């Protein structure tokens, strides 16, 4: 059985805060979850589009691009499936860092693929015209999902820290 939400009266540890974040939120309907699913679908779609009709002066780019995009899509599906399997409840800090690093690396790889596609393949055919902007949009989406995850977790962390800080007494007259 997975650990339940931690709710002790003392200060929470980082792991408790991160675990509570994943426990309290419906990840599948959250902005970061939806962005991950859309990004994984776009990875597969971009690979199919490029395989089906992409023409490029660099033939090695075709194989490398589709392989990298499919691996990126699989990594995003792994992150989504991991949340479905409640992995973040058992190792919340590791999962958070894995999510953020994977999203960032995937976004950077897609940005590089998009730029290389624009530079080496040109915008001569309809497929080439659609491919690079599609991958660029996907790079923004997947990086955005990592940023949204980070911001939401840090917001939760700050709120928990403030809630458990000792209250200071009112200043006495000579301190004012």
Give a verbal description of the structure:
By secondary structure, this protein is mainly alpha-helical. It has one domain. It has six helices and no strands. The chain has helices spanning 14-24, 31-53, 59-84, 87-90, 92-121, 126-163. Helix 1 (14-24) packs across helix 6 (126-163), helix 2 (31-53) runs antiparallel to helix 3 and helix 2 runs antiparallel to helix 6. The longest helix has 38 residues, at 126-163. The relative contact order is 0.16. This is MARVEL domain-containing protein. Keywords: Membrane, Transmembrane, Transmembrane helix. The chain crosses the membrane at residues 34-55, 61-83, 95-118, 130-151.
Fill in the keyword field for this structure.
0% strand; 6 helices; mainly alpha
Instruction: Write down the domain tally.
Output: 1
Strand-and-helix sequence, N→C? HHHHHH
SS class = mainly alpha
Shape descriptor reads: elongated
Helix content: over 70%
Radius of gyration over alpha carbons? 21 Å
> Which ranges are low-confidence, i.e. pLDDT below 50, for 5 or more consecutive residues?
1-5
Proportion of beta-strand residues: under 5%
**Overall mean confidence score, pLDDT:** 79
Number of helical regions: 6
Biggest β-sheet strands, sense, barrel: none
DSSP summary, beta strand count: 0
Termini gap: 54 Å
Organism: Manduca sexta (Tobacco hawkmoth)
Transmembrane segments: 34-55, 61-83, 95-118, 130-151
Protein name: MARVEL domain-containing protein
Keywords: Membrane, Transmembrane, Transmembrane helix
């Amino acid at each position: 059985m997975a650990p339940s939400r931690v709710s002790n009266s003392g200060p929470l540890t980082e792991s408790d805060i991160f675990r509570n974040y994943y426990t309290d939120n419906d990840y599948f309907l959250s902005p970061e979850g939806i962005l991950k699913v859309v990004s994984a679908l776009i990875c597969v779609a971009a690979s199919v589009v490029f395989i089906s009709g992409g023409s490029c002066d660099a033939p090695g780019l075709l194989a490398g691009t589709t392989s990298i995009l499919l691996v990126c899509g699989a990594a995003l599906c792994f992150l989504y499936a991991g949340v479905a399997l409640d992995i973040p409840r058992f190792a919340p800090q590791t999962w958070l860092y894995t999510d953020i690093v994977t999203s960032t690396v995937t976004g950077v790889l897609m940005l590089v693929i998009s730029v290389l596609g624009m530079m080496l393949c040109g915008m001569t055919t309809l497929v080439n015209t659609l491919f690079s902007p599609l991958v660029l949009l996907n790079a923004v989406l997947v990086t955005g999902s990592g940023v949204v995850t980070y911001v939401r977790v840090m917001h939760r962390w700050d709120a928990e820290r403030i809630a458990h800080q000792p209250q200071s007494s009112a200043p006495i007259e000579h301190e004012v």
